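[09:14] KT: can someone run the structure on this one? pasting the chain below
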Amino acid sequence: MREDITLLMPVLNGQAHLWAQLQSLARQSHLPTRLIVSDDGSEDDSLEILHRFARMAPFHVTVQRGPGRGYAQNIHCLLRAAPKGIIGFCDQDDVWLPDRIAQGRHALERLAHPALHVTGRIVTDPGLRRRKQLAHHPRPGFANALVQNIAPANATMLSSRATELVRLALPPADLMPPFPDWWIYALTTGAAGAVLCQDGASVLYRQHGANTLGAAHGTAARLRRLRYLLGGRYGMWLRAQTQALWRARDLLDPEAQALLQRFSVGLYQGGWHPEALGIRRQSRAQQAALCTAARLRLL
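[09:31] RB: done, structure tokens below
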């Protein structure tokens, strides 16, 4: 018997590109069991588009009202609403290629341990032109997840066991860290789960002026992240992430618990060295920036 597959979509003023994404979900070679949408207070025609799609969709569609308190709490609301089974996140402005769900299901179905399936993404302009595939990160793990997210929500599906883990660990809504997908990556790897990275791409990642963070490529993106690092925003994200993980530490394996404790002490007391703890980002340049920021107490 095949497992249910639930897609979760946060929406806010998404009318410009929402219909194209919904159509791409309806064209999947393996359809989801259901789509749950949480609209966080759209003031455009997003709700009308969603209800129109719900009437003709080849799967069940639920449209609920979000909390109106930002992206992270909207995701929290969706996770609370998700039933058992495989879940996948989809952004309102992307387009999924036809085999996205089938590939995730094939990788995750009937796994006995928590696992994430992370597909490749092709970055496009608002008109889905000028395509560039984002590079994959070959070294997932908890020591990486403490300081970097390589499982972005719009590219990630969770196994049934990972869904159970997330539901058990879910913090109160007001303590949800700013990037729930990053927290899910850290939680899963900390609980000895797997991250299955797909070589090919199955998501068109549309870039426009309203992206929450944007693709991590190009000179502008690198400068933006350097500004976050030097300005203290990245350190704020790390502390929020660490606090949420600490609340769920009993669900982590002993090695991850010990590393989380050492990392937390270093983060709050300062003077810590990432490489001494085995903590790493994916590239040498990123690692050098992290080590410099830690040494200068910018985190």
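[09:33] KT: thanks! The chain is about 40% helix and 20% strand.
[09:34] RB: yep, looked fine to me
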